[in-house]
Write the structure tokens for this entry.
Amino acid sequence: MSRFIAKPDLQPTAVAAGKKLLANDYQFGFSYPTANYAFVAQPGLSQQVVEQISEFKTEPAWLRASRLQALTEFERKLMPAWGADLSGIDFKSFHYYLRPTDVVAKTWQDVPADVKKTFDRLGIPEAERGVLAGVKAQYDSEVVYGSLKKTWADDGVIFLSMDEAIKQHPDLVREYFGKLISHQDNKFAALNGAVWSGGSFVYVPKGVHVKMPLQTYFRINSANAGQFERTLIIVDEGASVHYVEGCFTAGTLITTRVGIKPIEQVTEADLVLSHTGSWRAINQTQVRSYDGKLYTVTVTGQPSVGIQATVEHPFLVVRRKYLNERNQIWSTAWQPVSSLKPKDYVCSPIDRTVNDFETQNIEIPMGRGRHGFKLETVTVPTTADFFRLAGFYLAEGSISDEHYLSFSFNEAERDYIEDVKNLIQKIFGKVSLAESHHLKNHGTSVVVSSTKLARIFKIWFGAGCDHKQIPEWMLQADLAKQAQLILGWYWGDGSFYSKQLKHGFKEMFRLCTTSEKLAWQMRQLLLRQDIATSMNVRSRRHEGRRTMFTLVVGGEAAVKFGDLVGQPIKATLHYKKRATAFYIDDKYFYAPIKSIEIDTVKNVPVYNFSVQTDESYVAGGVAVHNCTAPNFSASSLHSAVVEIFVKAGARCQYTTIQNWYQNVYNLVTKRACVEREGEMIWTDFNMGSKVTMKYPGFILAGEGAKGEVLSMALAGAGQHQDTGAKAVHLAPHTSSTIISKSISKAGGRTSYRGLVHIGPKAHHSKNTVVCDALLVDDLSRTDTYPVEKIFTNLVEVQHEATVSKIGDDQLFYLMSRGLDETTARKLIVNGFVADLVRKLPLEYAVEMNRLIDMEMEGSVG
């Protein structure tokens, strides 16, 4: 069978947040009344409770017997004497079964209002509901919402709650249920076997490749409740469940604080415009190779090259309501590009921020010293006159020999020539000023002989027509000043077109430049003035000439623009203006999609990045999301079981991000069996909880099987994260990697507890274990408990462990550069985990960074 080494695969994600305890201290610490529960079991664990759960679910006899056997094992087994302190668990206090609703809703609209309210408040985004191949949402003990996209259902993919799977596929479930993790495995596996409820069942048939995510949300809404979900996943021979993040191709233009940049040139040092119209920092960038469908979205009024995105990337859109009329209600939603249709509206956010200054300082090189040019600070008055002069320079200005600043006009444009001369003298006082006449082309240039002014204009506005730009500080200036900038540019590089038609006038304004950056910046400034524009791009390279970018203002917008530049148009007098295709409100500029083309590509590099706070940016002039990560839910006792079967040549990745409230005991058993040439990857991030004991493992049962664990834990005050991994090699030529990172702060304790077992037949196998621990202070603790059992020769086993501490010298170095202590500590911690985070799918990396930042708040002192 073929060997699959594709990108990250299956991600049924267990994620958590908290119940109503000290809610003011915890963002998700809320709950809603339980009066509407369909059924609530009495507290405590007994044979009666177990039989009641089975009867309520109308389970088959074999499953009822399995539950009772598990109860016997639970009562027989002792609590673990190793690991974390579990003495605070009172098994008699928990409700082991709460049923919020009698049916599993197939659409989000069918979910009961109180349950939906909880998930909405947790922030499960519209974008995520749209882009997932399948979603399960568990509320207390039961799955209340489930869906699987038709594409994958038609291929035979099964994604059900465990209760549904038992009823619809009883033989398949019975074949695998409890075969990897028996009731005899440990006390908490037995507890799960007795009272389990909810969870997911996934089956991917032979040769099927699912390239969109399957995810699960868990939420406990009631105090003194336990959650005991059961997950069973079977990836059949040659199959894969491939998790793919949304991305864009190289060349996609991203709106940054300093102008547009191709996405492949965007770095973590950039600020980008988000969908809220705010400038946000970048957390992390990503590039990967992509195989699959590529969508090219062409937007009315934007360059015809279009925006190229992978199949699931969400765009912020307004659905077209009327085929041939403009919408009246503009309700935005995140939608995957694959669901968009021509004439739907995409959204361009407008930066409405006003930061105005009376002066601006600029450092320019003037005169040579022993070590090169000396920098001189010059203060420039940023008046409306200076803005208009800057507009003239962007249209007609140039720099010669680093010493001469010139403005070139046609000799007939005498008013503009005089205006430029007056502006220069008014702003800068007495300077060397002259006119230069060019008889051959009827031109006149205003030439300023001033090295200082030449360098000011070069640094702020660029030199050479292809490199003209607007400096960052001008992009948020007062609107009246920006109007003067637009006026100067229009007088220099603008034109007006008017043609009388049968029913009125066709009138429009055009503004031209060969600088792509300037064209997009001017478009932003015009949107701030509530003026919509189209952008035309005309390549003239075949003529040996520069590409021309033209902003066209027509329709309703032309009326506003005409008023701005002092040229009222005839349409206001003789023609009832027709509504244009565009619309502008306080937040967005809405433009309809002109066309969507779909191609199938292979090995194409695609790019994406995460953005602080909003997790969105502007690509190709429109707002897009970076495919957000999930939010959280919680319980007082969480004891789950996950069994995964990876058949020959199959591949699976299971990612868990958990942020439990600090009274939760998180005790989970997770194991996978990997057959010949299969691959299993566990990605596990644990924070919050009082105690976590979790050691995801794999049994490499077939020749050439691979396993990997990427683990991270963060422990704060009163917390013990006892985590690790188990790698069992039973077949030859198998390989495993365990990478564990832990962070301890405020007296928290982390422990790595791992097992590497290489059996007698597992010759030529390899294992690598890397454990890195970071202590944030003197109160915290970290331990490592590795166990290695090797029963054959010809194997390679490596174990590396490091412990480091945030030092005063590190903090001093960062704080001396303007960072406060909390930010400095965050920076050190993020650097510590960066190499592991880079291995994760982007949205999980986003969530990890966000949770670490939240946890590190208040870690000083």
About this structure: Residues 716 and 745 are 5 Å apart (CA to CA). The radius of gyration is 32 Å. The chain has 18 helices and 48 strands. The domain at 263-352+589-625 is CATH 2.170.16.10 (Endonuclease - Pi-scei; Chain A, domain 1).
